[in-house]
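>> received
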Amino acid sequence: MQQIIVIGGGVVGLTSAWWLAEAGYRVTVLERAPEVGSGSSYGNGGQLSYRYVSPLADEGVPLKALQWMFQDTGPLHFRPEADLRQYRWLASFLAHCRADVNRKTTAKLLELGELSRQGMKQLEVTVPLDAFDWRDAGKLVVYRSRDVFEKAAGKQGAGEIWSPADCAAREPSLAAAEPLLAGGIYNSGEAVADCHAFCLVLADRLRAHPQFQGFVHGEARRLLADQGRITGIEVANGLDVRVLAADSYVLAAGIQSRTLADTVGVSLPLYPLKGYSLTAPIRADDVAPEISVTDFERKVLYARIGNKLRVAAMVDMVGEDLSLNPKRVDGLTRQVRETMPRAADYSKLSVWAGLRPATPSSAPIIGATRYGNLWLNVGHGPLGFTFACGSASLLAGAMQGEAPPFPLDGLSLRA
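>> returned
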């Protein structure tokens, strides 16, 4: 059976490795960090939103983005770069900001979300849900604008429509915010979990898998190609530089995938959207959310993960800069204290930022490249945890030549 190297030890790379090992391939995972799941998978929002998958690109978003860019606490912050990739991505993003395109992409992502939900269900046998604080929490999207709320509530199959009083009664953590709300939409079947813990548990299960060849820790510098095939990966670990070779290669390394693909002339339409998260311990007398909550206008996500509150928000378009912007952090902290003042011990906040590798359409890229033995599982943006299992299943099927469960238009590099 073929030997495969999966490049990337985050949630997408690890699920890819698992599905490929289950398919009978001999699999090695290359990860640059000492521990798996320590990049964009580490402090993400923790929401598994299989049915709340609306792409960022939509009609009206460009005008909103212009307003947000001048607000320290707004959902979006933009800093121009001397990098043409930023402007190419923005131009493509603007081209996707049409209602008809958004509807088509949303339909495709809903199919991927359902496949991912089924995949996570399959993993329960191997990866116990309580090992990574998985909860079937349901999802409540709250709205502050009456017009925006009524438009969302009017969509077919939107979910349960809740008044502000319903929101506060059924989710008491929102009691302080009730006067500020126009209403909410609730859907059951959505979950929350600790993505980093999931990565650690899945890595342990991989180590015990008979087809798994192990983890290699080092920095992938470049891919090597000859006559239409990838022949190896140049890997550095300190002063030690070597070439790893396999029959096939899977790029699942987040935003690093863009740079590695460039080394063999494959252009990936990815851009790093930096997001922030806050984590605070929940005390016995705190009123933390039991339901997964999304503040629609502010684009802030709240999730109870175990005994901690996780809050995720914001998009900073500042290149591959992982530094914490104090104004952004302070603004987010103020919003959280205002919305859920009694949800956690905010005096013990920890702050994290990660780079979410996004495509202009918000749809991931899964499948083949022009190199016969180079495969992709990239571009999941903020929904890497949500889509990981479904994407891995599609990738393994494609590599085995199987017919996909649904058409993959919009999810491939050629689309």
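>> The mean pLDDT is 95.
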